[in-house]
Amino acid sequence: MSVPTGFKRLAAAVSAVVVGGLVVLGVASYLVSVDAARDAVTAEVRSVTGLEPTVRGASTLSMFPSPRVSLGDVALAGYAEDSSPFVAEALVANVRWLPLLTGRIEIADIALVRPHITVTFDAEGRSNWSPLVDTLARAMRPDPQVEPRTLSFSEIRITDGTVVLREPGRAVDETLEGVELSLAWPSIAKSFAATGRVTWRDEPLDLSLAISDFPAALAGDTSGLKLRIGGVPLKVAFEGAMSMRPSLKIDGTLAADATSLRGAMGWISGRPLYGVGLGRFAVKARTNVVSGTVALSNLNIELDGNAAEGVLTYGLRGRRTLQGTLAVDTLDLTPYASAMRLMASDSRDWNRKPIGLDWFDDLDLDLRVSAARVLTPQTRFGRTAAAATLRDGRLVVTVGETHAFNGVITGTLAVDRTADGAAMRSQLALKNVDLETCLAELIGVRRVEGKGNVLVSLDGTGSSVLGVTRTLNGNVSLKAVNGALLGVNVEQLLRRLERRPLAGSADFRSGRTPFETLTVVLKITQGTAHADEARFEGGNVRLAVGGSASVPARELDLTGTATLLAASIEQPPTFELPFFVQGTWDDPIMLPDTQALIRRSGAAAPLLDAVSADKRARDAVRSAIERLGGSDGAATLRRLGVPVPVPETAPEGDQATAAPPPEPAPPLAEVPTR
User: Can you tell me the distance from the alpha carbon of 412 to that of 393, in angstroms, rounded to the nearest whole number?
Assistant: First the structure.
């Protein structure tokens, strides 16, 4: 056969097919009217859903490129008289060819254009669409006595839809926008699949749902379940089984991860969460959901670089609750350091940042954590066991044991949310700890070294750590052995002043003073600490201190007596010196009692009588100055804060022998004497 002949036959075949198709289209359009097609589609929807469809717009029947019936402005009347669970801009039903040629309408699939679907849940968990589920279950359930109802269509596509989820009892009202879904239940299989994309709270999410036994799931029996949710805030994957009788039960493996747990929690809750930490998050666990409670076993969780194992239980019904036990190898608290910091960034003032406890109202907590190591920016803690409970706006953290500062810490910390901040109460026992690092990291004091025990019982209220210190009440005791007082060498100072009482050039803020025992007992009232007992016992030195300290200002106002002990305990002390300590906790100033030094100085002692007795002032001052070395002695007295009278000038007529009047001395700083 020649090529031209072949082309002619092919053209004839194509023409015959086209003509046949046109004939079929013509016959089909003749056999089925638009009204008949509309009635058939609405009857099928009524049969499948149990809802009464109302077509309020125009209806059309199209044969090209495939037969389909389009119904405009369709609404489904709800099961309750005042409910309208479904409204669509258009319902398009694709019709099968062969039944259409016989004058029957069989729907292959349905497309919903811009539907608005409302799902409302009651207190028992049933929704306004539950009758639809019952209808589908009856339609798909095989019954040997009754011929099973076969759904004529097995796919529904939703384009640019909106789904509203409501639960009035829990004040839940959520909207899913931009819904693009394909729902399919193939007639040759028992499975159900839904895939597509939705937008929730301005975040697009990719969805994938698969039910292995759709008839069993509709009947409430056990069926396989796979769920995938993917988006920027959160990714979730679940694979397991579910059932609805007698109540919802889900069992399987859950995996989830988020670049920021704080961001994901804020997105889910609908309000931003402020603070630090709660960054990178991942979890994988065996999951069981029963009656609104999610139980996670064989749990592996990662948060901010910390990996833990254990179990967690999360309650969804009523008030949210979280319970569990976690074990961590290394717990790094560095991401949360600023939230737990007592001191400001300069380590010289208390933290002034507001204490935020808004999340106390949203959750009940009962969590136990054990760790082999705990890290903070300043400290490494050893084996630690702690528990945290949060109920009715009250957080209680109980430290069963933590190895820190080469010792052991136990105790409790309770925090209550108040209208203007927080109320705190602490009971802590620090046993055999390294005082230098312990006091430096807890309260910023770097003046004591050695091993000791610290007992703390404090309470206060305020909107910040600084505010709490202003209302602080309680008791603090410290007992230490074999350590040293840093920043001052008391023995060297006493020996120098014993030899030269008026050695004004002595440096009182350098060196260290070893001690054998140190006992400090403080009673704190409204932010002021009073020293009930403060004793320092060294090999050659003994100190006794009293006075007060301001906790908010971190300032000292102390007086005491430093005693230089004799070589033998039977002998009396060789030298005793009253002193006072003022200034900040970080850099205190220790000064001796000026009057005591003057009394001990044989040259300057008469000045005390001179100050109190004007009639003998001239002779006493002149004698003291001469014994101290003339003008140098006067300068020494002025440096110590002792007023020195100016010698009288010569009488008139003897101007040649009169000494020139001295220049007036600059005003002297007042030096307190104790």
Answer: 16
